[in-house]
Design goal:
mainly beta; eight-stranded antiparallel β-sheet
Length: 270
């Protein structure tokens, strides 16, 4: 397989997940052995983004338009995700409340005094596509490194209902796995979200280093397609060339520093 062409015909929404973030903005992995892969939005229907228009600045003169310029929008980039499955654990993660067991029932509270203090989270979505050359199956994905994603409960009717999640995107200076943007590499120092094109389904796995573990294994259902399609980060630093990469995981020598977040961004085998 080869590098993706960067030209695709995308459709649908195959997968979406939310990542809890630690105080440094990295995915909040908690184990050196079990990969943290986010919390899936099971049965996601649609993910839509609202990108505000640029501000148009007109310079008049001599009874006509002398020049036209543009400034960035002052409106937020927002979005909406709709999901068929009602997931109380996910609702609790996104709103900062707890799932409470009462007898054998699960419950969460809505419209609490935590409104406005919802945690920042990372978002990850992908959809199927066809490349532009031979129309082979490819995948388009998007990562939002920092966002608020607020669920909005619905009533009860005699037709199918989906739960909407309101999304507000925050501009940040790093990738979700912590790599800082630079003018040389990225052409910008801040971004709101990142779009990726790949030949295989993308995946992000994260671990919390403990100073002794050297092997970080992928989950059985998310093995890598090939070693060429694996990139490894240690607290945001690309260390792919200095670790041993396999389709089943990565091996460090020596062990990474305790409390560092190890992130692997890769294309899946299935």
């Amino acid at each position: 397989m080869t590098q993706a062409t960067g030209k695709q015909y995308p459709i649908g929404l195959r997968y979406g997940a939310a990542f809890a973030l630690n105080s440094a903005g990295y995915p909040a992995a908690s184990s050196p052995t079990t990969p943290y892969e986010g919390v899936q939005f099971v049965s996601a229907d649609a993910f839509e983004m609202t990108i505000p228009d640029m501000r148009t600045i007109v310079h008049p003169g001599d009874d006509r338009v002398a020049a036209v310029d543009y400034l960035p929008t002052l409106d937020a980039v927002t979005g909406q995700l709709t999901v068929s499955l009602y997931d109380l654990d996910l609702i609790a993660l996104l709103t900062g409340v707890n799932v409470v067991d009462i007898g054998e029932m699960d419950s969460v509270s809505w419209f609490t005094d935590e409104q406005g203090a919802e945690p920042s989270i990372g978002l990850f979505f992908y959809q199927q596509s066809l490349n532009n050359s031979v129309k082979a199956r490819n995948w388009r994905s998007m990562i939002v490194p920092s966002a608020r994603c607020i669920p909005k409960t619905v009533g009860m009717v005699a037709t199918q209902t989906s739960m909407p999640y309101m999304i507000a995107v925050n501009p940040v200076s790093k990738q979700l796995w912590g790599t800082a943007l630079t003018a040389v590499t990225n052409g910008a120092l801040e971004h709101g979200f990142v779009e990726f094109h790949s030949e295989q389904k993308p995946w992000l796995a994260n671990w919390l280093a403990n100073g002794t573990a050297t092997v970080f294994s992928f989950s059985a259902s998310h093995q890598a397609y090939s070693t060429a399609k694996v990139t490894v980060f240690d607290n945001g630093t690309d260390v792919t060339g200095s670790v041993t990469v396999a389709t089943t995981g990565v091996t460090f020598s020596p062990a990474p520093t305790s409390d560092h977040i190890i992130s692997v961004w890769y294309e899946q085998a299935a």
